[in-house]
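Please go through the sequence line and token line underneath and see whether the fold suits the sequence. See right below:
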Amino acid sequence: MTQTITYPRSAPAIEQKVANGRITWTWPVILTVIRLPLFGLVQLLIAGLFWLLGRSQAWEHSIAWWSLVAVIVNLICLWLLYWRLNTEGFRLRDLYRFEREHLKQDLLVMVGLLFIIGPIGFLPNVLVANLLWGDPMMGQEMFIRPLPLWAAWLGLILFPLTIALAELPLYFGYALPRLTALSSRWKAILFTAFWLGAQHCTLPLIFDGRFLLWRLVMFIPFALAIGVVLHWRPRLLPYFMIIHWLIDLPVAWMVLSLSLP
């Protein structure tokens, strides 16, 4: 007998659990906003360690470690996702599952979407940086810095992988369908997309107004586009996770290339 899979991003299953009180506002909201303070807190702990070691400008040193900060926060979020989904009666691995009966159709849709969403993901980064500094690369140069070689290799392996497993699944696999069931489609999309963009303000946290504005604005259009698509077709989440991994891999490679002797 074939086992029926209840996907944790399935609207009917979520609506039923909202109706019986098993899903409430609390955790969808907490998990949507939690990454922003967690990034800042973990960076603070790293800066505190540098301070204890007698490093001058401990906070400035901590900025370079943003990829490892992200790995730690991603692991925390993965544990929270696992715990919450189990509490609701779902399984974390089903959040990542491809729906094979739609595989060919979904691959064609993703190819078409890449031509639309790709520029939305790339252009705000360059245009906003050029508007703020007159240099499209300035924002990137402020936080992509060399690390000890072991840390750079660790970042190359773990940063793209853990962010692909944790970020979009948390915002659009977990929070979005639950907030939609609890409120409305557009409120849920706008709320999750805003916080997905806003979290980058503290990864890393640099106390510079233009940098904070750049980190906020550059991601929100992309987050809105993905939010709309994944509300329309939630089963595309695993494909976006793979794309997310491919996008972040070159960023981690830039850190490694700066760290090589």
Observations:
- The radius of gyration is 19 Å.
- The chain is about 75% helix and 0% strand.
